Automatic annotation (TrEMBL), chains A, B:
Localization (cell): Bacterial microcompartment
Species this protein is from: Enterobacillus tribolii
Cofactor(s) demanded: Zn(2+)
Pathway, per record: Polyol metabolism; 1,2-propanediol degradation
GO MF entries: acyltransferase activity, transferring groups other than amino-acyl groups; metal ion binding
Keyword list, A-Z: Acyltransferase, Bacterial microcompartment, Metal-binding, Transferase, Zinc
Purpose: Involved in 1,2-propanediol (1,2-PD) degradation by catalyzing the conversion of propanoyl-CoA to propanoyl-phosphate.
Name assigned to this protein: Phosphate propanoyltransferase
Amino acid sequence: MNQALMETIRTRLTHQSAPAIPVGVSNRHVHLSQQDIEALFGPGYVLTPFKPLKQPNQFAAQECVNVVGPKGTLTKVRVLGPARAVSQLEISRADCFALGIRAPVRESGDLAASGDALLAGPAGYVSLKEQVICAWRHIHMSCADARRLNVVNGQKVSVRAATERPLVFDDVVVRVSDGFTLEFHIDTDEANAAGLKNNDLVSIIAG
Amino acid sequence: MNQALMETIRTRLTHQSAPAIPVGVSNRHVHLSQQDIEALFGPGYVLTPFKPLKQPNQFAAQECVNVVGPKGTLTKVRVLGPARAVSQLEISRADCFALGIRAPVRESGDLAASGDALLAGPAGYVSLKEQVICAWRHIHMSCADARRLNVVNGQKVSVRAATERPLVFDDVVVRVSDGFTLEFHIDTDEANAAGLKNNDLVSIIAG
């Protein structure tokens, strides 16, 4: 098997593996517990939806916070709603360097030994301990999408971006739930590296 | 040919295609003409080497400039030496967003219809017109390296990063010259997306 033949196979697999999956680029954001919302914005405060996200019931809130690290501060970091049980800050590797903190690449909610940062809001501060991650790239999809794409929940797949900066993301986690809208979630570093933007299309090439 | 078999082939090719190639992460930087050096730093000014780069005769200079765009400014952008015939600013996609400018993904020196920006130094300003790019990822290598890796100058290859964020960069340009030291050059977006840092090792998996 020579390398030229392998490339042919890769190309064919790309073309076999429609349907395409829309990209959602996640800028840095924070999910907050109700307790932390009140610490940052005031007693009894409730988030105000700004615009809906593609995943059901999720929204970008009008509220933003500042994130403070030992080396720098990120201003106007968007809060996503609704409130969650545990606050979780999701940033890029570039943000880690800017803040001067370490944050592991993790699936949402997998927070043990993750990073620390300080959140600053108009009414106070919240110290995040083991609550900061770089999100592991993943695909949200419904059960029908999963059947059509021949993958199962938790599976890791490879995803091709056929862009001006073409690349293949390996170890992309599939998340299946009937509530989910088909969407490939990557962060800003990943989007920039691949030349991808919101609603561009990618394909699964290997499961 | 099923997808599992293809993955096996990809893995085997990775293992066949040693030797590994060290990574060099290029932060934003600028190459300057002698005329622009003097406009920015003063008449008769000569760059002062700060530290050598891996490629022969190339150095990071002590000098830095500010880069000004319509939306923002990047401070302390490193000048690389020696002086070139034409000044060229190399930034990441993230930098493009911060500055509010467009810059195409290009090989070094391929500047037609590339981006614009203003450079600010202690002695003056330089307006760059079609002199701003996002560098196309590429591998520098000697003729001996090229023979060993079975590639030729100008060829595009795929490069696997077997990291915590594994991915395959496609369309990586091979640049062969007996002056070159073996090095895979990527920008900070690409390094962050792949979890790569300076001197990490990658492999060519397909030519």
